[in-house]
Amino acid sequence: MNKILIIRLTSLGDVIFTIPLACALKNHDPDTKIGWLVAEKGLELVKNNPCVDNCHFVPLAEWKKHPFSLKTLKEFIQVVKEIRKEQYDIAFDCQQMLKSLFLFEFCGAKRRITFKDARELSNLGGNEFITPKKPFRDFEYHIVERNLDFARHLGVNSSELQFSLPEISQKAKTGIDELTKSLDKSKPMVVLSPATTWENKHWAEENWANVIEAIHAKCNLVFTGTDKDTAILDSILAKTNENINYLNLIGKTNVEELRELFLRAKVVISPDSGSAYLAWASQKPAVITIFTCTPPKRFGAYGNDEKYFSLGSNLPCQPCFKKTCHLRGNKNVCRKSPKPNKIIKIVNNLLQ
């Protein structure tokens, strides 16, 4: 029996992209003990996950505020002591960035496995290196498959994509019951999560408005997001020409409640964001993900072409991975594609 430590601290989407690795390892040998180093955003999905035996929390957000304080140093040492106490046989650095380097190097695992092309010198913490099946900059190789290459390195079959998630509490279910009690139960639910943390990932507001006008009458239209997304929704709705029936849940759900909401949805539409991948991991709704500055084949939901749709355009500047557009002319052109009619057609087909 092996004890394996997975290091994937952030973000919500990237934690979701790593869960199939834990599933593959656990399915191969149920006696394998899986530990996971995770920060704030992915904690709810790792803690009590049926494929994770030990969840090690890293308060990364607080450390970033005070990186050189004595308190941060003490907490770092405490985390290292905690994981070294478990005596892991193997550690996988799925973060592969400077933020994971020292935790990886000092974790105490006998085999510290990473990719030869890991970023930001993070491979300095490893002692066993995988030659990647595809280079890191191959944007057509999905990040989930790259994570699964860790399992393949150990001879673990990872041909079947699986997600494991913690059981949803009755409290969360009751909370969503209350929040959605006004909806017409005869109509399917379409959830729109139009915002994410990167401005350059946002689809044009007039495009969202066109989609909303086309579909709102045939479904329960529900908006989700964080408190910071209220202004974006207001701007989108201001561009519509009709009285739109909708339910605004922006800022009203945590991750667990959002999962429950997605389980009740027929369709989820979102930019490249944690919401899109949380919906995908639930394996229930159809997911339409809109890409601007990031590559669809690298991050888009996959596994069923009739259920998962990743749409973008094919501009010379894509993918740029920039949080703000750096073009001097034709600025933010990627945010105007795809055209709303493409999304409307897919939604109409899914609602039939």
- Biggest sheet strand order reads 3-2-1-4-5-6
Tell me, rounded to a whole number, the average pLDDT: 96
CATH architecture of the largest domain: 3-Layer(aba) Sandwich
Question: CATH fold name of the largest domain, please?
Answer: Rossmann fold
How many strand units?
A: 12
Number of helices: 13
Anisotropy-based shape? globular
- Assign a percent range to the helix content: 25-40%
Run of helices and strands: EHEHEHHEHEEHHEHEHEHEHEHEH
How big is the Rg?
A: 21 Å
Proportion of residues in β-strands? 5-15%
User: How would a crystallographer describe the biggest sheet?
Assistant: 6 strands, parallel
Structure description:
The chain has 352 residues and is of the alpha/beta class. It has helices at 12-28, 43-46, 60-65, 70-85, 98-105, 143-153, 170-179, 205-215, 230-238, 255-263, 274-282, 296-299, 340-351; strands spanning 3-7, 33-38, 54-57, 90-93, 111-115, 128-130, 189-192, 220-223, 247-248, 267-271, 286-290, 308-311. It has 2 domains: 3-153, Glycogen Phosphorylase B (Rossmann fold, 3-Layer(aba) Sandwich), CATH 3.40.50.2000; 171-351, Glycogen Phosphorylase B (Rossmann fold). It contains 13 helices and 12 strands. The strands form 2 sheets. It has a 6-stranded parallel beta sheet, sandwiched between helices. Strand 10, helix 11 and strand 11 (286-290) form a beta-alpha-beta unit. Helix 8 packs parallel to helix 13 (340-351) and helix 10 packs across helix 11 (274-282). The longest helix is centred in the first third of the chain and has 17 residues, at 12-28. It is globular.
